[in-house]
């Protein structure tokens, strides 16, 4: 410093110049920002949040000692590495145990955000449910004012009436049609005379990706969609199968594709659980965490198939014989995993599980090869699910089984058995007294499929594809054959949700000519033949559950005759030979006349005071008004006089 001062003191300026001043004037205003002056330098300035926005804080982590710390780290790594690469972790310790929260640093902020979105609320076990937050969120939470502020009112988004089609005055159901070899799809309202197009569009071309999706209603009104796309799967980030939350758009969990079986998941009736089967393993997951139930899969050696009860959280599965261990069918209650019924079976070749729609009964079709015989014998093991200890009845069949189907809302089932050309159909009734009665058998039927009406009682026996589309319409209340018809080369049969109509169709996917769909009444009367170029598929729009109680439904059925006249009038109108255009024209004219008459009546009533004034207060609007003021007067008119001489008579 001393040398510097001496240097400044020894400085001299030529020609007597004064030392220049580098200070700003007193009135100087600095209007240049640092960003404008040093923008290129400030861009490289280290930011305080660098790295911090890639850190997440996980709370409610188990508190463990040094002996279990490595195992905990492996579990955490397995769960959170699905969202991105973890570059660093920190487990705070106090008194020889972890504190119950940890810090994880990802390689990118987007990975940290993905972890928060998907792992927050993850249920590790019964005592530990993760709460996951970004480290940078703590400043935001600490700066929240203690004074409550009313949230900003958000504008209402009107999505319209999503069930508007249920308000159709003629109660028309809707169906979708895929045609033009899958290139186009349309939505139609079902009408007796002809389909009414609601919407039609081309299908987006996504031929480069094979996909499918299905929806499931979950707990607390959440709805999930499952998508499948094997071309997007990666080893570290499972993307082949993804479960999404429809309401939030959030990805709940991804899965690898274990095999090419497209029956990937089966859901419990209440949506709380879903399950998938792999080799010797049955994995059951719970919502909304999407984690394994009790954090482990069921090890079931040789498991062949499983199925959920439609009415309860009960899984049925079967295991084939293994040396001296018999085959068995097991009913398991969830989430307790209690085995409520086990049925041992011997000499089993194959089993098929058939649940009744309400879960009241389970039929296990068992194919056996009895000792000393070469043929296959079939038994139906009927489980009575609503009775104590789940008793089992057995129905023996001496012929091969072609098809089996339960009545949707009842205790009857139908069986197609035998071999062509001697195919028989038998109808059975499961009674409350522990017996199963054969109601009726029809022989020599041309059928390989059974299609019950969704309301029960009526069914269609169909000989699809190789049987040339033979159809038989049956009323099972008295087992009468209502009609026998044919839709040549029919490949599919679809009942409408009400059970009033049924559609048969020839799909382009199975047959390249005569592609069309036909509409029938439940009695077998043909109403329409609809030809669509390269028609592929028809599906009815499902109806939501009725809001009416069972008592209200019974009352409506009881008083149905009161409404029959209205229905009959509409039926006669629909069956009229008048064209649709003429009917619409007459309706328009009638509506115009009604409106004109209302306007004329309004004007007439408004002019009433004026009429009274002009007529001296006498009300002449009614023919019998003011009778007391009437005066009777007789008026005689001289019309003609004729004189007839008497002498001329």
UniProtKB/TrEMBL annotation:
One of its GO terms (molecular function) is translation initiation factor binding. One of its GO terms (biological process) is formation of cytoplasmic translation initiation complex. Belongs to the eIF-3 subunit B family. PANTHER family: EUKARYOTIC TRANSLATION INITIATION FACTOR 3 EIF3 -RELATED (PTHR14068), EUKARYOTIC TRANSLATION INITIATION FACTOR 3 SUBUNIT B (PTHR14068:SF0). Component of the eukaryotic translation initiation factor 3 (eIF-3) complex, which is composed of 13 subunits: EIF3A, EIF3B, EIF3C, EIF3D, EIF3E, EIF3F, EIF3G, EIF3H, EIF3I, EIF3J, EIF3K, EIF3L and EIF3M. The keyword Kinase does not apply. GO terms for cellular component: eukaryotic 43S preinitiation complex; eukaryotic 48S preinitiation complex; eukaryotic translation initiation factor 3 complex. PROSITE patterns: RRM. This is Eukaryotic translation initiation factor 3 subunit B. The keyword Aminoacyl-tRNA synthetase does not apply. It comes from Cyprinus carpio (Common carp). Residues 54-137 form the RRM domain. Residues 1-26 are annotated as: Disordered. RNA-binding component of the eukaryotic translation initiation factor 3 (eIF-3) complex, which is involved in protein synthesis of a specialized repertoire of mRNAs and, together with other initiation factors, stimulates binding of mRNA and methionyl-tRNAi to the 40S ribosome. The eIF-3 complex specifically targets and initiates translation of a subset of mRNAs involved in cell proliferation. It is found in: Cytoplasm. Gene3D superfamilies: 3.30.70.330, YVTN repeat-like/Quinoprotein amine dehydrogenase. Keywords: Cytoplasm, Initiation factor, Protein biosynthesis, RNA-binding, WD repeat. The gene is EIF3B. InterPro entries: EIF3B (IPR011400), eIF3B_RRM (IPR034363), Nucleotide-bd_a/b_plait_sf (IPR012677), RBD_domain_sf (IPR035979), RRM_dom (IPR000504), TIF_beta_prop-like (IPR013979), WD40/YVTN_repeat-like_dom_sf (IPR015943).
